[in-house]
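Input.
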Amino acid sequence: MRNQLAQAASWAVLLALGAGIGAASAQTGSAVEEVVVTGSRIRTSPLDQAQPVVQIDEALVAKQGLTSTVDVLQRIPSAGGGLNSKFNNSGNLGNPPDGGGVGAGSAEVDLRYLSSRRVLVLVDGLRWVPGAAASGVPGSVDLNTIPTAMISRMEVLQEGASPIYGSDAIAGVVNIITKDRQEGFTATAQLGTTDHSDGFNQQYDVSWGVASGSTHIVVGGGYFKQDPVFAGDRAISRFPAPYGTVCDGGCSSGTPLGRFIVSDPNTGQDLNLTLKQALQPGQRPVYTAADPTGAASSFKGFTTADRFNFQPFNYITIPSERVSLFGSVVQDITDKVQLRVRSSYTQRKSANQAAPLPLFVGPDAGNGNLLDTVSIDATNPFNPFGFTLQNGTYAFIGRRLVEAGPRHYSQEVDTWNVTGTLSGAFDVGEKTWNWDINGVYSRNHAEQTFTGNVNAQRVQQALGPVALCTGACTPLNIFGGAGTITPAMLAFIGFTQHDVSQQKLTDFSANLTGDLFDLPAGPLAFAAGVERRKNEGYFRPDAIVAAGLSSDIPAQPASGEITVKEAYGELRIPLLADMPFFNRLDASVAGRWFDYSTSGTGSTYKAGLSWRPVEDVVLRGSYGEGFRSPSIGELFGSASRFDQVVVDPCSGFSAATPANVRANCIAAGVPANGSYTQLNAQIGVITSGNTNLKPETSKSWNFSGVWAPSWLKDQSWASGGSVEVAYSQIKLDDAIQAQNGQSLLDRCAQTADALSCATITRSASGQVIGIANPLINIGGIKTRSLDLNLIWTSPEWSFGQFGVHWYTSRLLEFTEYVPASSGLIPIEREGTERGSPDQAYPKWKSNLMLDWDKGDFGATVSGRYIDSVQEAGDPNKLESRLYADAQIRWAPSFLDDGLSFAVGVNNLFDKDPPGCVTCSLNNYDPNAYDAPGRFMYFRLSYRH
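Output.
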């Protein structure tokens, strides 16, 4: 009977893995080889794991038609999103307020909405170098740097594991297992495109393996290319407002015809002007002081209709290209000692794009650099006003440099990784102990080229006194409209920006595991180990940018290194076995002790229980402490600007505005007459690293149960199945992040909170010049969630075999605690869309996959549900979405046993994402929703 139950368990798990994604099974069996399963360093049966682990194999990736590792991981219901190919932030949003830079072209995974920085990514149980995208020093791994052809499967631990793995493993662990043995040749080719005939996607992966005596070799590589999709080609993103058809206040003041906010000292008039039409090159506009917008004048009053629509220039899916190579050699030195050497190289080329540069000058420009102090001299041959434009005579001029073309940011990232593992086993009495010694060297080097920027110092010279514009200097015309900035003018003020960043990881570790001695209920098992690693990173912006002379995002060089020494120990203690209601009861304890060069010493601990009352049921519970040391970017990152989309509550107040808001705004420096109107939807939020940051700490509680009834094996309607329920609660203290710029503005206006108001700088006219928002240890985060996983497999009926895999996650709570002068303020996020920076927190997410296979044919239909969310800063509600995907497969046995074909469609019913008013770009949240449009693909696979 026990053997039958073991076979039933094995069958259920293999079916789950065959469909790609599997939950922990409740069955066990002595015939299953013991291995190291993610979540513990103790070797154990994969059927006996003590934590909820999602397993993703090659079959899942194939059945979903996805070409990137990150796309697969971000579809897990417990995933909160992360960077992917739908982010086009460069030039649009600046550097996100996390110290890590834009991360253009990168791919990251977030679990439990705690951000990718709190997810540890391992490859074969070892750390991987953090990402690099030439815009900062991030603390997260870029999944695009790991060759897809190298991946055998992925294991996702959905709970904290700092005592086992160390820093970063607060929300969970992603462990990518690579191919170390393979017989023969495998190849896949996939081509895909959208139903709009854009976004063409192609991926080719090959690997070849051979075994010769005691040597196993696997080599391979891949090529991936994705063409862009432009925002202007989708209805949701053609204008700054979702599904808009005309410009509104979200469009830009930086227009080709210019916007000129001037105070004429001769007439005392405050003017808000734009050109009626573009002039000829070299022609100076006519300004009539007595009637500035009259028939004789070249100007008219600026209105919302004159704003510039920057959206069509943006990517909604960025172009990307990757080339990767890998190799693995396993050499059996003796029957108990082996050496494995694995190496890989990946090159990524990607791009972001934004509309032509908006050149903003004047006291209200909000650049935070020299351009805010630029004067336009009366002798400038194109100045039509007859007086020098300086502080007091003008507040703002915005001119879109359409003559320079779109701003284009091209990244090239090269990633090298070399890993060596010497492992073996030896006998201690009647016990066998296993050991391994590991060395990792990995480097990420990124370079970015940005075209379309200008040198602020040269702009100042070209707009200044004409007598000082000598040599190569050409007087600049920002008054004549589109086509009047000549190539000579652009050649003088423009430059090509070159930025570089790099991260390097050196890691040495050793582990020992085995059984110490036998207890009445089984062997007392242990694992212990030590680790020493060093992270080094730097970011070097272009020299002109570092000098503060760029008109785009300001940046300064940043560099640092972190050295860590760690040791850990883990015990699995069998308490009871083979008793009524106690088929098995195990306890586990673990501890890790560390010494950081930046954060000092500390320790974390974890304890758990696994109770199997009967063979078919497992109940698990654990308590754990977590730890995350600040990353290099968070500690040493220099000040940079995040252009956040916000609504200033002090803009255009009137008698209808609540009295307390009016009073607080006036006290903050806004003119009492209500004349202040916010110029642009984006406001600069200055964020920087902070060497005084403390480490994050967490406490987590996890409870789960699995029921895999053995009687399902022999039913007429089922041949296996399981149900898993898992509860997770994480309380994070001293969370490292910047506050939300919109929240700071709101708290200052609504409550006159002193801490919030102190971060905001306004000009004399009331415009927000900037918000100082360095990284801090905020009060904390508390999140609670519940996961439900159902698996069912049918018998092999005459019309085929079916499998159902249903995975659901319920976000019960997500509360941020942020500091204010009155103490910590809770912000409840569950069921909301935060807006810029984008993050949806749907209460429900669910994936349902239905498989059918018969002979040479197979099909998969999937549904992905995302619950509705309410925008936090707007009455708009993002309605729920149900995406449907479908695939048909054919493996013609009469041709070749290893040949197969597949065709499929993702987003079968062409569901567009819900429009988001407060989101940063393209009017939807790329963390949560698919890019608009169907995606159709064809895949050919071959094994020999």
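The radius of gyration is 30 Å.
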